[in-house]
Amino acid sequence: MILADKIIEERKKNGWTQEDLAQKLGVSRQSVSKWESAGAIPDLKKIIQLADLFEVSTDYLLKDEIEKEKIDTSCDTDCELHRVSMEEANAYMNEKKKASPMLANATTLCILSLVPLFLVSTLNDGLAIGIACTALIVMVALAVFIFVKTGIKLSPLQYLEQEPFETEYGVTGLVKEKNQSYQEHYSFSLACGVVLCILSVIPLIIAGCMEASDYVCTLCLAVLLILVSIGVNILIRVSTIKSSYDTLLQEGDYTKKEKLVKKKTETFTGVYWCLVTAVYLGWSLWTKQWDVTYVIWPVAAVLYAAMYGIVKMIRKVD
């Protein structure tokens, strides 16, 4: 509920007309009318007067997300939270928008880095495999460079994703409007990305049913990875932008409770994927069966979801 609606609601609760409220505040009826139509905003002095007249806090009047029954004025300076200004909010949303294609392309590079290995895995040519391994390392290194560079750019505003905060007047309303206007594009892109990932297995299924040669199956596997990389690219682009809105609204995975849980589980996430990568590289380099060892990634992803859920449950109980 915005300030204009709150003034209307509180005025009517007290049984006052616009003229009555204007007299109590020492302003014209037209001024009150403009406040209630959101055509103008009362100055700070009038906000304080309104809070006294309505017997509510100034936070309730100024913060769109606060409802009257949730007001708690007992908080002292020890529990004060950082107040996010309009400039900070816009800067965060712009940086996340710029970062979305970078993160998406870096992830795509990681997925596609396996394609050269699959293409040469059936050739039994040491030189070709060496070139493919080099291509893999170069592509992963480039992806890591992009991840690190993007992370450094976003680091000054990372506290928004990690710590609870408050927003100044108008910030929540602006973000909600942007979120609503983006929802249709987000839903469509999300559906397209998921569908692409699902359809990616079709060439491999067809090749298996036709009992195609190993080389044809490898080509189909490469097509699968390419389609998955496109789908994941789309998902990351739109999800990164959507997450910026959820972060500022403190919704979804960015509520105060979820931020606390993430702090407790981030160590598990880092250790898990480092171990998975080590196992994959060790297994692949030892057996030279790159066309087989890739299965560790989907298995690891499913196990991660299950284990992460268990860790979250344990942390919440604690």
What does this structure look like?
This protein is mainly α and 318 residues long. The protein contains 15 helices and 2 strands. It has a two-stranded parallel ribbon with strand order 1-2. The longest helix has 36 residues, at 214-249. It is elongated and about 90 Å long.
Mean pLDDT: 83
The helicity comes to: over 70%
Structural category = mainly alpha
Low-confidence stretches: 69-78
Major sheet characteristics: 2 strands, parallel
Number of helices, where a helix is a run of at least 4 consecutive DSSP H or I residues = 15
Q: Tell the overall outline.
A: elongated
Strand content: under 5%
- How big is the Rg? 27 Å
Counting DSSP E segments of at least 2 residues, the number of strands comes to: 2
> What is the rounded distance between the termini?
36 Å
How are helices and strands ordered from N to C? HHHHHEHHHHEHHHHHH
Strand order of the main beta sheet, please? 1-2
